[in-house]
Design brief:
heterodimer; A: mainly alpha; elongated; B: mainly alpha; about 70% helix; disordered N terminus
Amino acid sequence: MNPDAQARDPGLQPERTALAWSRTGLAMLVNALLALRTGWTSHQAPITVLGFVLLLASGAIIFYAAWRRRHLLHGQGPVAPSAHAIAAVAAATLLACAVELASVITG
Amino acid sequence: MKETPSPKKKRTVREPQWRQEGTEPDYRFSLANERTFLAWIRTALALLAGGVLLDQFSTKLGPHLVVVALAVVLGMLATALCGLAYVRWRANEVAMRHARKLPGTLAIPLISAVTLILSAVLVFLLMVQA
């Protein structure tokens, strides 16, 4: 890591990255609540259950955002993200897509 | 698991093989790539929410079949963008580790074309209703 680069960029890259995670968690939360509402009002138990799963996923993403913020700002220097976290977010979003498609097609 | 002790020993889950190849890029590029991935994910989630809202809350829009088709296309677009987001994040990481040119993405022409078509259909529906 280039120490000059760090001096010119005190904390802002980590800050922006942590905020991006928070925003993603909140976007997932909106979709989880929409899925819960859809499942509840149309009496589709599977959609409601999957809505809860998405709710858990959004909680996990927001939790990861907080953890990553701590890690990036106070850890031993910024690090690249875990490939598993990235894959998990992609998987959760794919699940949200499947829930949407299922609720639209069956609803 | 018995391995020779290394500074990376702290990680409980092994990172994929390509993460060990090449050299670690400047951390700012890694973080920028991570944020780009998250931005595409949010884009997919926003399109998805749009699809649900269209299906659930569009009481005056019709015919119903066209509205359902629009919501399905939004869901499929979100699915494609989500897949492309991961593929591109990974390809960018690999390219940066080997100091190669960053790959292009199909996501930008795809989202532009599909959003244009969806908007045109929606505008048409709204004009017919009015």
